Amino acid sequence: MAKADIDFEKELWDAANELRGAVSENNYKNYILPLVFLKHMSERYEMVHEELKELLNDPKSEYYTIDKEEISYVLDDADEYRSRNTFKIPNTASWQYLKDNVEQDDIKVIVDDAFDVIQELLTAFNPQLTNLLPRIFVKSELSAKQTGGIINLLSHPKFSEKENPESDILGRIYEYYIGRFAMAEGSGAGQFFTPGSIVRLLVEILEPYKGRIFDPACGSGGMFVQSLKFVKEHGGNKSDISIYGQEMTAQTLRLCLMNLMLRELSFDIKLGNSLLDDKFPTLKADFIIANPPFNVSNWHPEDLPDGDPRLFGPKEEYTTDGSANYMWMQTFWHHLSDTGTAGIVMANGAMTSNTKGEKNVRQHMVDNSMVDAIVRLPDKLFLTTGIPACLFILSKNRDGRDGLHRERSNEILFIDASKMGTMASRKLRVFSDDDIKTIGETYHAWRSVIASEAKQSRNDAGMTKQSQSNSQTSSDEEPPLERVAGSGLCYEDQPGFCKAATLAEVQKQDYKLTPGIYVGTEAEEDDGIPFEEKMDGLKSQLMAQFEKSNELQERIKENLERI
């Protein structure tokens, strides 16, 4: 991490500390993030305003005019701002106006009034944005001085998108606060925050370049933001992705909506319980990226309608009130397009649960070739829960018909990443870029048409060479993942890390999906000493220890006789 980032974070936390004493830590986000959002809206307006002024003064521009009334009209036209993905912000709702009034005793009223003005613009634009910026400062325990202090700290030039164009500075501020507030909130924060390295890994695996992206447990929208970053990093266009999400907590939904508006993404996010009140019954998504709450009990499956289209069978056989994990699985599968893929963070227990309502679903998923891959994650990846986790990758493109991926309907890829990651602190482990690349490339190589063809070609060449030399090599002795000239990566099983198991192998293991069952243990490094020599040495060592033991027994007897 660069020094600038450390300073950046320290000053952001200083801003949050202005709230200490007047607001509990788990409510910091409700005060800081709306101000960050207002600052974004205000700065976007100022930048577009300056852009329009330059166009009006540029003789080469079609906007050029010297008519003062025309200039005034254009600069005041709300549609000009909407066409540039922003709003015309009245002066009393601007960040500059808040800065100018930080010393006023009624600054809390001024802030809430500014929220009202922007809220009116948002609601008129999209009814989904209703109540995004409620009046919260006046009725809070914050003093006028504390409120002014937050505004002053957030006004630092390094936090300005105008001063730092193309840096997504306010988006980074937003992500930082969501992460820090997750640390402060403890276990409850897991409902809206997924650690960045897990999100990055899921996005790297799924590669959501374009299409419909859905998260029915979207929390604060981190999966969507990381998908956008992936698209940008690979030269794509954010207009090629459409965002759909559902969140059951109104307060968290507000965080998500603000987060997405900061990134100027196209989205449709709805409030409701996805398990019992699916707000997108007909949606078929190209990608589902989700971290649903783990092991939710007493979720009332009896309230599901008979014949719910998501269920694989009768609800009495395919649900359990003890855990909603596999109702989530059925929901994800239902919402996948014909070639869609889902990446889901799930509690480890889901890999082996024998509860009827869960085992039946898992068995159905294996027998019907729905599971593409399972990745076991290391411990301490989550700040907010100690429950060990894994990734389920479900896919409807396992038949190879999309032309991009090979037919693999009789296999499941198992990856054991439990030994990967680096401790960033005493309590938190993170995946490095190399870790994410290794896991992602392993999955991509395994399902790739090109890599599969390259492997077959090499195997054919190997068989020819073998027959020529009359030598025999065990089929279990497969080399690690390696690069094949001109064809990217070629997948091979790696003991202790990855294994492409057949459905028959999984069925033989009573449908358990724990990667360790299949990948085995890592091969020990060969020290070059023949087994017979090792055995002779061990026998000699053991005999010497027996003799030493006998001597000690005789001494003890002699000492006892003297007493």
Question: What does it look like?
Answer:
This protein has 563 residues and is an alpha/beta fold. The protein folds into 2 domains: 3-175, N6 adenine-specific DNA methyltransferase, N-terminal domain (Ferritin), CATH 1.20.1260; 186-439, 3-Layer(aba) Sandwich (Rossmann fold), CATH 3.40.50. Helix content is 45%, strand content 12%. It has helices at 3-17, 28-57, 68-75, 78-82, 95-100, 107-125, 144-154, 169-185, 196-206, 222-233, 250-262, 315-318, 325-334, 356-367, 433-447, 449-469, 503-508, 515-519, 531-562; strands at residues 211-215, 241-247, 267-271, 285-290, 336-347, 371-376, 389-395, 411-416, 422-423, 429-430, 482-483, 489-490, 498-502. The strands form 3 sheets. Strands 3-2-1-4-5-7-6-8-13 form a 9-stranded mixed beta sheet, sandwiched between helices. A two-stranded antiparallel ribbon has the order 9-10. A hairpin with a 5-residue loop joins β11 and β12 (489-490). The protein starts with a helix and ends with a helix. Residues 167-527 form the DNA methylase adenine-specific domain. One of its GO terms (molecular function) is N-methyltransferase activity. This is site-specific DNA-methyltransferase (adenine-specific). Residues 456-483 are annotated as: Disordered. InterPro entries: D12N6_MeTrfase_N, DNA_methylase_A-5, DNA_methylase_N6_adenine_CS, SAM-dependent_MTases_sf, T1MK-like_N_sf, Type-I_RE_MTase_Subunit.
